[in-house]
Amino acid sequence: MFQTLSVKDFVPLLSMAFLSLVLVGFLVFLAANGVMCSDTDGVDMEEEELFGLFEVMGSLLDDPTWAQMHPQPCTETPWPGVECELLEETFIFHVTKIHVGPDVITPSCKTSAKISESLLKLPYLKTLSLINCFTVSLVSLSTVPLFGAHLSFLEHLALESNPSLSGEIPSTISNLKNLKILCLSQNNLSGEIPKEIGGLAYLQHLDLSHNNLTGSIPEEIGNLERLAILDISWNSLQEVVPTSTGGLQFLEKIDLSSNKLQGRLPQELGKLKRLVLLDLSYNSLTGPIPENLSGLQQLQYLIMDANPLNASFPSFIGSLIKLRVLSFSGCGLTGPILATFSNLTNLTGLFLDNNSLNGTVPPELGTLPSMNALNFSRNQLSGELLFPQDFIRRLGKRLDIRENNGLCSNQEAEDTNTSTSSSSRFLENPSCSSAMFPAASNKTVAEKSPDMKPKLYNGNKSSNARHRHDENKEFVLLPPVLMLLLLLFGS
């Protein structure tokens, strides 16, 4: 009644079962990777979200055929500035990133570009980056449909280099509860920074630089406990640096340069144990420099140019051993250059020009192994410069000690006759053995006759620590009588 089956009879059955399993696995793989379309019109996205994307791109880009060229932007017809993610529960793609900028070559933004209300149809959007997009037609930030509760997933908002983007930062920006990066730099924004910005509890990067913002920095900025980068440079902010910034324990960079900030530096800044860069240059901050800054042991860049500090260097500066750039140009500093600067073995740039520093130049500075640029020009330094020849050769024209009338040197350039000589600017200072310094080692600047102070350089130099450049030199010819004296007594 029952037929006995041999092993050979099972082979076809096993083969069919194996092929069925492979086919099912392949179909699951296709669905997981979005290759299979949804049941409606072969679209791999929700229809409202897809058409919302088309409307947003149509309002931005200078290409009316963009939607036709990219009917399935998440799969079959992608575009570099749009990214999508697959929602595993429904196997449907959602737009998570829109980026338009110079790195996405075509199409660019049109002259009448604006942000469409249809942006609100993209509820899963995490990143919106529009760079150099609003350049002709005025767009007010307060009218941009960004700051409602509909975009609760948004983590990265970058509207940068848009000269026609104007208006104030709306207080409703606090609705973007999940925002981690906010970059509104190089626009034409005005008004005050809203205190509601302190409600962005997850914010890590805040860049409002290069705008026309006024008023003060709100104390509420101290509520941004996760903040690592704070850049509000190149605005017109006034009043003092808020003490609440001292509570931002994750801060690594503070750039408040080129504003109108006043008063003294808050001692609370010394609590920022992770701080790497502190740039407060080009403000109206006054001294003294608080001793509490000795706690900034991770600091690598300290830039204070063009502030009327009118103080001397605190001794703790020599203990900030990770410093790479120290810049106090035009700060009204007095007193000597600290010998403890020689402890800063990581220092690559030291800029102390346009101050009232006096005394001698510590020879220990010539032993700093990483030094690449040194500027002591336009001070009241005196005595003999005692830097090693290899140090001077390494710095070349990046060594600048002009207009220190009491300073001299007995070192000479190796090849001062060639037009391509890279000899340092210190060589414009006279020799200590010349007639102008008959006893330089025994006399101070005050003891020398004012008539005997050399004036071998006549020129101007900007002292911006971030935009330093060499200038052509103008040599003033020595009077014939003085030349004769040098010939008679200098040999």
Topology:
Elements: H1 7-32, H2 47-60, H3 66-69, E1 82-87, E2 92-100, E3 127-131, E4 139-140, E5 156-160, E6 165-167, E7 181-183, E8 188-192, E9 205-207, E10 212-214, E11 229-231, E12 253-255, E13 262-264, E14 277-279, E15 284-286, E16 301-303, E17 325-327, E18 334-335, E19 349-351, E20 356-359, E21 373-375, E22 380-384, H4 389-395, E23 399-400, E24 406-408, H5 480-489
Parallel strand pairs: 2-3, 3-5, 4-6, 5-7, 6-8, 7-9, 8-10, 9-11, 11-12, 12-14, 13-15, 14-16, 16-17, 17-19, 18-20, 19-21, 20-22, 21-23, 22-24
Antiparallel strand pairs: 1-2
In short:
By secondary structure, the protein is α/β, with parallel strands linked by helices.
Textual characterization of the structure:
Residues 445-454 have a biased composition (Basic and acidic residues). Pfam families: LRR_1, LRR_14. Keywords: Cell membrane, Leucine-rich repeat, Membrane, Repeat, Signal. This protein is an alpha/beta fold and 491 residues long. A hairpin with a 4-residue loop joins strand 1 and strand 2. It has helices at residues 7-32, 47-60, 66-69, 389-395, 480-489; strands spanning 82-87, 92-100, 127-131, 139-140, 156-160, 165-167, 181-183, 188-192, 205-207, 212-214, 229-231, 253-255, 262-264, 277-279, 284-286, 301-303, 325-327, 334-335, 349-351, 356-359, 373-375, 380-384, 399-400, 406-408. The chain is built from 5 helices and 24 strands. The protein is elongated, with a radius of gyration of 33 Å. The longest helix is centred in the first third of the chain and has 26 residues, at 7-32.
